[in-house]
Amino acid sequence: MTAAGAAILSVNTSWAANSIQDVQWLQGCWQAAGAEAGSEEHWLAPAGGSMLGVGRTVRNSKTVAWEFMRIHENADSLVFTALPSGKPEASFQLLSLDKQRVVFENPRPEFPQRVIYQLNADGSLLARIEGKMKDQEKGIDFPMQKIGCNK
């Protein structure tokens, strides 16, 4: 084997595929900051190459929005799929992943084009959707605090 061949082999074997374990910090129950009780997002622990999530928004004691979510391994990457409040399912491909931040993207024309989760140093979670709406960049933040799942 030549030195160049050894270098290529070394580089190829050092590439790490993304795993569902890379976003295990998302698991647990999260209460929407400043929202009515019951406005929460819950994520199951990684298993079988996926994490399943469910979210609910409550206003005036009524559920006004809900969402089923899944993050799953696909080849050497991750995919975020959402089914929000009965709207059509949308899947977002992994764009970037750091130790405590993940960004998924779908270049579709409908808002949002990006879904972001970030675990902050204080243990809070920031979920964010962003993209273009009517040719204007828009972002919506969903700050959350970790809560016990056995309420």
What's the arrangement of secondary structure elements?
Elements: H1 3-14, E1 28-32, E2 40-43, E3 50-59, E4 62-74, E5 77-84, E6 90-98, E7 101-105, E8 114-119, E9 125-133, E10 136-147
Antiparallel strand pairs: 1-2, 1-10, 2-3, 3-4, 4-5, 5-6, 6-7, 7-8, 8-9, 9-10
Describe the structure.
With 151 residues, the chain is mainly β. The protein has 1 helix and 10 strands. The chain has one helix at 3-14; strands at 28-32, 40-43, 50-59, 62-74, 77-84, 90-98, 101-105, 114-119, 125-133, 136-147. The model is unreliable at 1-15 (pLDDT under 50).
Regions with pLDDT < 50 over 5+ consecutive residues? Answer: 1-15
Number of helices: 1
Instruction: Give the N-terminus to C-terminus distance in angstroms.
Output: 61 Å
Order of helices and strands: HEEEEEEEEEE
Strand order of the largest sheet: 1-2-3-4-5-6-7-8-9-10
Q: Helix- and strand-based class?
A: mainly beta
* Rg measurement, Å: 18 Å
User: How would the global form be characterised?
Assistant: globular
Strand content: over 45%
The beta-strand count equals: 10
Main beta sheet strand tally, sense and closure: 10 strands, antiparallel, barrel
Could you estimate the helical fraction of the residues in percent?
Answer: under 10%
Mean pLDDT: 90
